[in-house]
């Protein structure tokens, strides 16, 4: 018990007896809880209400920041709803498929004026990308484009490594987003996801049963979680896109196997990439390895062409018997990013319009690289 009030005109009444109170519960102050209901007239009143009052602290710790009091709501912590819909202080109603639920998200991060931005940075709408002929024809990059892609992809790798270094139990996915945002800007880049079709954050963080496009929020990572961090950087007019799934503390055996298998799926897919191979072959290789290990392959989200556009042709499914068109040529750049599920392949979408989760609530893992295949000339 501490904190004698120095503003007698602001008198609160004792939560125990109703008399004027000028003592504040120190725990409530630490948790930034409202002063009403946390004020007492004397040590005696504080002590006699302790057994009932202390439950306030427990409740505050269980509910995520942003739902505790109006102060933190003013700081912009709100639940995300579909594009165009206002954010909300209340958890939306949904038939959650697994243990994970959304937490409030922080307000928008700022990108300095000097940084060169893609055309969606201002108003959330990509203008060049959807109308480009590169949605249908696969571009062969020029040596200059290739050089810029290398620089951008190197930055993206370093940004992802910076994010990976802070991952541990107790860290929120919003804190991961802050590291990604700041490291990207420090390198002179723009975090491509920020405001892409109104995506509210600078990277995607996908925990446990989240397949992809998880929005960084106030949830603290827990021992035993798996978390994918997906980073895309825009620098010198081109995008570089990669992601990895990390272990938080000690994870169970099935999660270990799932993440290992997903990593191997990407490695095996990369190993067949060379001019003359059909893009549809990638899905055969991935599906074979995943199903051999008793896991399933997500069908709703695919790899993609990348360069001056974030997403363009070719479309690269990760599952077998897909109908992807095209044959690989030297100088093309595209991603491979298999999402592998411990249970069923089917996905569902959260009310935020972004977060893809497994239909059965079991875990999902993903790894992604941006690829360039060049033929060595002798
Ligand atoms: N990085 C993701 C990909 O691999 C795309 C994220 S778009 C976002 O294609 F808007 F969700 F961030
Ligand atoms: Co991608
Ligand atoms: Co990505």
Chart the SSEs and their pairings:
Layout: E1 12-13, E2 20-21, E3 23-24, H1 26-30, E4 39-40, H2 43-53, H3 55-62, H4 70-74, H5 128-131, H6 143-166, H7 173-186, E5 190-191, E6 204-207, E7 210-212, E8 226-235, E9 238-247, H8 253-271, H9 280-292, E10 296-297, E11 303-305, E12 312-316, E13 333-336, E14 339-341, E15 347-349, E16 356-358, E17 364-366, E18 369-372
Antiparallel strand pairs: 1-2, 3-4, 5-8, 6-8, 7-16, 8-9, 10-14, 11-12, 13-18, 14-17, 15-16
Helix pairs in contact: 6-7, 8-9
2-amino-4-trifluoromethylsulfanyl-butyric acid is lined by residues 193, 196-197, 199, 204, 213, 230, 232, 241, 335, 337, 354, 368.
Give the count of helical stretches.
Answer: 9
Class inferred from helices and paired strands: alpha+beta
Name of the CATH first level of the largest domain: Alpha Beta
Helix content: 25-40%
What is the overall pLDDT average? 91
Helix-strand sequence: EEEHEHHHHHHEEEEEHHEEEEEEEEE
- Overall number of strands: 18
Q: In the CATH hierarchy, what is the architecture of the largest domain at level 2?
A: Alpha-Beta Complex
| Chain oligomer state | single chain
Report how far apart the termini are: 78 Å
What value does the Rg take, in angstroms?
A: 24 Å
Percent of sequence in beta strands:
15-25%
Low-confidence stretches: 1-9, 66-74
- CATH topology type of the largest domain: Creatine Amidinohydrolase
State the domain count. 2
